[in-house]
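Why do we care about 3D structure at all? Because function follows from shape, and shape follows, mostly, from sequence. That is the central idea of this module. The next example makes it concrete: a single protein chain, its amino acid sequence, and then its structure expressed as tokens.
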Amino acid sequence: MKVDIKSVIDKTKGEKVEGSVYVSSFVYKTSKNGELFVRGCVRDQKLVIGFTVWSENVEAFREAFAASKILTVLGVVDVWQDMPSIVFKSVKADVYGYKATDFLFGYNKKQLDSDFYEFLEHVNPRVRQLVDKLVEGELKERFFTEFAANKMHDACPGGLAGHTIKMLRLAKTVVDNDKRLLPYSELIYVGVICHDIGKIREYYMGDYAKNGFVSHIDYGCEMLYSIKDFVVDLFDEVFFYHLISIIRGHHHIYGDRAKTVYAYIIHLIDMIDSQTTMFLDNLDTHNYKETSNGEKITIHNNEVFYY
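And the structure:
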């Protein structure tokens, strides 16, 4: 059986929790007396709740997690500052045979495929040719099933394509809103599609893949260099290097700074979608606090925002 997170949220401190959970993130921490413990989050579809593993169970957690992100636990509810969480008293590898997709809310792959290629029908056919060359065969399947992130936003099956499609719609709004961008619309659309494409190799179903210590930025550039002649023949060499610049600079102040207007525009579009998705996910997953006036607040980058 799975732990019912919705029912756990409604439980009182000290009540028993038992079943299988999917660990979406965690960190090892050191207490004031020098003992190692674990803090993290478990999720089921759109619901997320925090957990703690104290020092006496850290080794059991480490061994079980090495085998799978799905664990079978026995624990109790804890409440701190009106936020419920689970303290794991017993941790072992999953005994019920669950898969990650049993816990993870994801996009509808058929709908993603339809939305993506419907968008490409309304742009220059060269864009579709480039995309088909870049994400052909197995990579195409990976594009429509991979996560957009290990955590943060769109950290779910299909998240990479979902994030990309949302960005394409935002990009079209930007282009349609200022006709000065029309001559560069193909570059902007291809740049959106390429900006995170390296995550196909950085991740595997949200976990870091082999050599996942290499950033999706480097993988994306490598993938693009592998079809450089094709891109240059289809567009030109300047277009190719603009794409490299977009991949390199789309994180801007959080990585290599954008060096072109187009890389910066895509950075802004990326931030609009990712940040909006994160805030709305906080509402869906109850990752917020209620004030004494009954208002909802969330903390992001050390700033307080009201819902």
